[in-house]
Design brief:
This protein has 73 residues and is α+β, with helices and mostly antiparallel strands. It is 18% helix and 48% strand.
């Protein structure tokens, strides 16, 4: 399996933290040298390991923002 290269350009928010120190983060990340995208996933404390997550384009984040505004929490 090919190595995945990434660069966390900006940490926007830490959404939660597990007892083992893994954090669910909302970040702006460049994957394999490509244009940055927004990303939500779990990260090990030293960012050497990651869990499954979701990567979103600018348009997808804008749509998600609109949808979340309409939800009555």
């Amino acid at each position: 399996m090919a190595e995945i290269k990434f660069e966390i350009l900006k940490t926007i928010a830490t959404l939660s933290e597990s007892p083992k120190g893994w954090k669910k983060e909302f970040n702006l990340i460049s994957w394999n040298g490509r244009d940055p995208k927004y990303d939500i996933r779990d990260w090990a404390p030293d960012h050497t390991k990651m869990g499954k997550g979701v990567t979103l384009s600018n348009d997808e984040v804008k749509l998600l923002q609109q949808v979340l505004k309409e939800i009555d929490f």
